[in-house]
Design a protein that fits this description.
Elements lengths: L1 E5 L3 H12 L3 E5 L3 H20 L11 E4 L10 E4 L5 H14 L5 E4 L6 H5 L8 E6 L8 E6 L5 H13 L3 E6 L6 H18 L4 H12 L5 H8 L1 H15 L8 H8 L17
Helix pairs in contact: 1-2, 6-9
The protein binds nicotinamide-adenine-dinucleotide.
């Protein structure tokens, strides 16, 4: 099987790493050669660390070829898109992929919050379009949601599911609804947690302790939002609110204010907690 990955940023590089680790021939596309090389460097670094820690015996970075040209996907069986989270660039890309890829190739999107059906609608063969929603960091998080859009064929869905397994993930099946499964549950739940900070006048540390020791969460909600990134959470929350108009989906004012103030969590050194740099 030959896999294509479009966009080698946070998610795409992680997905390409999984494909190389699984021994699959992998084509990665970035907008410039420099960005592609940077991603290859990161992939090689993480896989070398796995060898050092005896988590894998070896890997062959030669399986990864880089390109800036979409036509390099011509021989791929599955192409996974992981570019910016905006509908128009994704629709434009899928129309291009349809032109260059084999007629039986499956086209997958890693979108978190956009409609897979709307992305598929940019092609004249929406049957072969499916969602493959990995979680960040893709090499470490075991889950992938396999998302069936309105017109996804059983064949394309099955191919995406099998690829998820081949990449060492635990795939789950769902339909194309806002937030799919995990984010649809987790985002309003985290918003509730943040609202409780103000309502119950509890400190972030006590709230986190409450959920860890009283509900068995592996990590407290404030720690989790800091890890995800306050801005990333607010953005995802706004996207769900736009689609569902349920008050719990809307980002709490406290998080919006934090995002505007540059308190983005771990990556900025401060969110609910402070982190040493
Ligand atoms: N970051 C997360 O936590 C997360 C989790 C699950 C899903 N996603 C989804 O994955 C996708 C990518 O997110 P990310 O966080 O990796 O973003 P990112 O900004 O880190 O990476 C996107 C990359 O795509 C490249 N790119 C843009 N247009 C391109 C094109 N036409 N062809 C090739 N490359 C192109 C950019 O140069 C950039 O390197 C989004 O749809 C996002 O919603 C993100």
């Amino acid at each position: 099987m030959k896999v294509g990955v479009v966009g080698l940023g946070t998610m795409g590089a992680g997905i390409a790493q999984l494909a190389v680790e699984a021994g699959l021939e992998t084509v990665g596309r970035e907008v410039t050669d420099e960005l592609g090389e940077k991603a290859r460097g990161r992939i090689e670094h993480f896989l070398s660390r796995k060898v050092e820690k005896s988590q894998i015996d070896s890997f062959d970075i030669g399986l990864l070829s880089l390109t800036t040209d979409v036509s390099a996907f011509a021989e791929c069986d599955v192409v996974i898109e992981a570019i910016v989270e905006e509908l128009e660039p994704k629709r434009k890309l899928f129309a291009e992929l349809e032109r260059v890829c084999r007629a039986d190739a499956v086209l997958a999107t890693n979108t978190s919050a956009l409609s897979v059906t709307e992305i598929a609608g940019a092609t004249s063969t929406p049957e072969r379009v499916v969602g493959m929603h990995f979680f960040n960091p893709a090499p470490l998080m075991p889950l992938v949601e396999i998302v069936r859009a309105e017109r996804t064929s059983d064949g394309a869905f099955g191919t995406a599911y099998a690829l998820g397994e081949r990449l060492g993930k635990h795939p789950i099946r769902c339909h194309d609804t806002p937030g799919f499964v995990v984010n649809r549950i987790l985002i309003p739940l985290l918003n509730d947690c943040v609202r409780v900070l103000d309502e119950a006048r509890v400190t972030p540390a006590d709230l986190d302790a409450g959920m860890k020791h009283g509900a068995g969460w592996p990590m407290g909600p404030c720690e989790l939002v800091d890890l995800v990134g306050i801005d990333v959470h607010v953005h995802a929350s706004e996207a769900l609110w736009e689609k569902l108009r349920e008050p719990r989906m809307a980002p709490p004012a406290r998080l919006v204010a934090m995002a505007n103030a540059g308190l983005l969590g771990r990556k900025s050194g401060r969110g609910f907690y402070e982190y040493g740099r």
